[in-house]
Every structure is written in structure tokens, then in C-alpha cells.
Amino acid sequence: MRLRKNLLMAMVVLLAILAPLSGAFAQEKPKGDAAKPAAAAEKKTNMIWDYEKDLGLTKEQVEQLKKAAQLEYEEIIIFARRQNVARTELADLLNKNADLDRVKFKLDQIYTLQAEIEYTRIVASLKYKNILRADQLKKWQEIQKKESEQNK
After folding, report:
1. pLDDT in tens, 45-58
2. d(CA 38, CA 119)
3. Rounded Cα–Cα distance for residues 134 and 145 (Å)
4. In degrees rounded to 5, what are phi and psi of residue 97?
5. Which residue from 25, 27, 66, 139 puts its CA 20 to 30 A from 84's CA?
6. Local structure of 53: helix, strand or coil
């Protein structure tokens, strides 16, 4: 039992050290115009409305897509900030050799917030799909596939 507890503690410490370095835990931070989703600000990738002509988007569709993206961005920022606070609290717990139950609780909190971020992205993706016509969605998926292959 003691060996298991020590092993768990070592894993938690390792996670706390490596997590900030991992791309899987990277947080989007607003840069430049706060109205732009973070991915666009950091990676300079094109957003769906940048393909307005290619997809045959109406002005109303563009406005709906931008509004949905802004809402997604705002929600993700809230969860990401809460997650950063929880990570700081976890680091404090580890520095104080806190009880493992408290450490596990904090880890659960961090990963619940990560799940909220992913869920927010899924909901937004469904909103985008509902804004597009079937032919526009098909063309958008082709564009994404092509860009994904070019970025490999």
C-alpha cells in the first residue's frame, strides 16, 4: 500500500512538472483583438468565414458563424482560466506534501475543466454545421482535409 502511494505521488509530481510543457495541456490565450478566436490569433489559420466566397456563404451565415465562434471562445477562456487556477493550486498541494485525496480531487477538477473545454468545442462544431447548407458543409470538410494534409 505504501509503495502504491509513493508511486502515485511520483506520478503526480511528474505530471505537475511536465503538464505545462505538453501541447495537450496548452491553453489558448487572447492575443491582439479579443474578438478573434485564439486559434486564429496564434496560428494565423483561416476561419470558415475566410472562405465566404468559396463556400457561397451569405452575410447572415457569416454573422452567425462569427457569433458562434465568439461565444465558444469566451466560454473556453473561462474554463481555461479556472483550469490554470486549479493547476496552481495543485502545485501548491504538491509542494506542501498534501494528502493524496486532496491531490486527486484537484486533478479531477483539472480534467473536468478540460472535458468542459472539449464539450464546448463539440457544441460549437454542431452549431457551425447547423448554420451551413449540406453542400457548404461538404465543401468546408474538403477544405479542412486539404489544409490538414498540407500541414503534415
Report:
1. 689 999 999 999 99
2. 17
3. 17
4. 50, 50
5. 66
6. helix
Cell 494565423 -> residue: 44
CA distance 63 to 57: 10
Tell me the pLDDT tens digit for each residue of 60-95: 999 999 999 999 999 999 999 999 999 999 999 999
| Sign of the C-alpha dihedral computed for residues 130, 131, 132 and 137 taken in this order | negative
Distance CA 106, CA 116 (A): 15
Question: For the purposes of burial, counting CB atoms within 10 Å of the CB of 87, is it exposed (0-12), middle (13-18) or buried (19 or more)?
Answer: buried
- C-alpha 85: how far from its chain's center? 16
Other residues' Cβ atoms within 10 Å of the Cβ of residue 127 = 16
- What's the grid cell of residue 126? 454542431
Domain boundaries, the chain: 27-150
Contact present, 42 and 31 (Cβ < 8 Å): yes
CA dihedral 135, 51, 29, 33 (to 10 degrees): -140
| Residue the block writes with cell 482535409 | 145
Stated pTM of the model: 0.64
The Cα–Cα gap between 65 and 109 comes to: 31
Residue 137 and residue 91: Cα distance in Å, rounded? 44
